Amino acid sequence: MLGLNKKDTSLFLIVLGMTLFAPFILNPFPVDSDLAQFNAGYPDLMQRFLIFGIFAIGFNILFGLTGYLSFGHAAFLGVGSYAGVWMMKLLTMNVVPAIVVSVIVAGLFSLFVGWISLRRSGIYFSILTLAFAQMSFALAYSVLTPVTGGETGLQLSLSDPRVLGVGATPEGSIPLTNFFGLEMRDSWEPALGGWLFTFNAGYYLCAVLMLVAFYVAIRIFRSPFGMMLKAVKSNQQRMQYTGLNPKPYTLAAFVISGMYAGLAGGLMVSMDPLAGAERMFWTASGEVVLMTILGGAGTLIGPVLGAGFIKYMENIVSKINEGILHAWFAFLPDGLEDFVVAVFYPFVGKGWHLTLGIMFMLVVIFLPGGIVEGGQRIGRLFRRRPAEPKGRPVGAPSSSAAE
Q: For the purposes of burial, counting CB atoms within 10 Å of the CB of 58, is it exposed (0-12), middle (13-18) or buried (19 or more)?
């Protein structure tokens, strides 16, 4: 289907199903139950799953295929966000031009950064990209304040000269972002029993673009271009001996990766039209590295899983406070309850980074292939063992044992 082999088609259909039915999958507990706080099926968080999934998919095209570790990809996310907000200020509140311009501007900026940074490899390449990201942050935070809004960030105002739209609604407020008239905040909330599901227009726009981004990533991985990128990662020197210059391929991968980051930045401002310099800070670049490695660098679905896992930890686990822990363990005797709460409390709430750090450490040590490798190992445990060949003499060793 769509030029994909059987295995990739199955994977794409799984991602398609998970994306379309996410409002059901991420709301497993009734609204009035004590476990409802673990539900993640509300629009803002579901949009973050997809947007950062796109960001991580793009980063994986560079890091997973070529092995070039960039510590500055947040710069492209930030540049895409600023371009999107400016498009809404000057042209229209329709999100399509904002998203298109975000991708183009981020692509051009990544072409400039990549052209310089790819003159070096290894740690020097990483430091160069980090330097570009920090310079971009510093410029956005102070020098380019008239363009970026500086410390307060770039946001819409009632005085914006919007060419293809109105500056304000009849009620006197700033117009909302829309997709040809369909506002991104529009939602349909059916109630079934004790469950409340939210189907949000903005989420499904992100879902469509994430599926397109995922499909393009699959085609890149399976294409001759993807094979050349894997050759760069495998042995760049041997590739040069064959007469092939690896730099055009790595630069193309860098630009494609930057355009994915720009798409993520454009979607972020399409859902919430505000861009700030902190979006370009080095910690944001480190976050996408964590997402990719945690999920499984070099795999197709790994970065999406890693992005979802980290955003879930950030938004759900960080909300668990001491009072909630006491409610969970109220059935224990008083002294034991306080002890158990004291043990668990450092790992939730503001301490969710500690839990994430431990998880990351365990994955790196025991699952170098990330969450995807963990799933593969579990799958192998349940896989049926092949039947013994008929006619084998009793007592003779099996083929595997003989090997």
A: buried
Asked if 176 and 184 touch (Cβ cutoff 8 Å), the reply is: yes
pLDDT at residue 396, rounded to an integer = 43
**Pair 229, 60: CB distance under 8 Å:** no
The half-sphere exposure of 362 on its side-chain side, counting CA atoms within 13 A, is 8
The strand ranges marked E within 204-343 are 274-275
| Two tokens, residue 139 | 């410029």
* Res 389: pLDDT: 54
Q: What is the pLDDT of residue 114?
A: 93
Question: What is the number of other CB atoms lying within 10 angstroms of the CB of residue 342?
Answer: 11
| Entry pTM | 0.89
Counting every residue written for the chain, the total comes to 403
pLDDT (0 to 100) of residue 117 = 92
Classify residue 110 by its DSSP letter.
Answer: H
Q: What is the DSSP string of 44-75?
A: HHHHHHHHHHHHHHHHHHHHHHH----S-THH
Query: In which residue ranges of the chain is pLDDT below 70?
Result: 384-403
Q: Tokens representing 138? A: 């510093």
DSSP single-letter state for residue 94? B
Tokens at residue 317, please?
A: 């686990």
Question: Are 275 and 154 a contacting pair, CB within 8 Å?
Answer: yes
Classify strands 191-192 and 154-155 as parallel, antiparallel or unpaired.
Answer: unpaired
DSSP 347-359: GSGGGHHHHHHHH
Please report the pLDDT score of residue 384 as a whole number: 64
Model pLDDT for residues 215-258, shown as the tens digit of each residue: 999 999 999 999 999 998 888 888 888 888 889 999 999 999 99
- Please say whether the beta carbons of 292 and 364 come within 8 A: no
Contact partners, residue 53, CB within 8 Å, separation at least 6: 210, 303, 304, 307, 308
Ramachandran class of 133: left when φ > 0, alpha when ψ lies in -120 to 50, beta otherwise: alpha
Q: What local confidence, expressed as pLDDT, does residue 385 receive?
A: 58
> Residue 274: beta bridge partners?
155
Distance CA 214, CA 387 (A): 38
pLDDT tens for each residue of 134-143: 999 999 888 8
